Amino acid sequence: MVTPDATGSATLPQWQDTTRRAIACAAEGHLAAARQLHAQALGIARALLAGGQAAARPDDCLAALVVAHHNLADVLAALGAQALAVDELCAAHDTLRTLVRDAAADPALRQAAWRHHRETHAALLLYLRAHGPDDAIARCLAADADPAETAH
To answer: Is there a contact between 66 and 119 (Cβ–Cβ < 8 Å)?
Structure first.
């Protein structure tokens, strides 16, 4: 379990360490442990966005969030939980879409969200190419065209 730094906040180095440990577990075939660690890394990434680090390092914080969702999706897919893997891919995309459309969000965070949004869009398309049609992904992608829609 990763603990917050001395200020009580999540840090990018904590996220990096947790992610490295999760990847090592997956490489060794310990998928349940990898799933747990990737979920923990996702929690850290969410805390980074909720805390003050997103304002100072928006690209890094959003990259951590996207990578955490995508890594967790990969492990879930390897465990045979395709629907949960799709949920993670869509959650990353939905979060970024919401940030892009949030007029009250910091402009640097919105710009970073737009850059990373292209990556999550590509990941959804790659999933469709590899696995065929998926209703959740279709809804997620369709929401991009609807400015009023923010969830899949």
So the answer is: yes
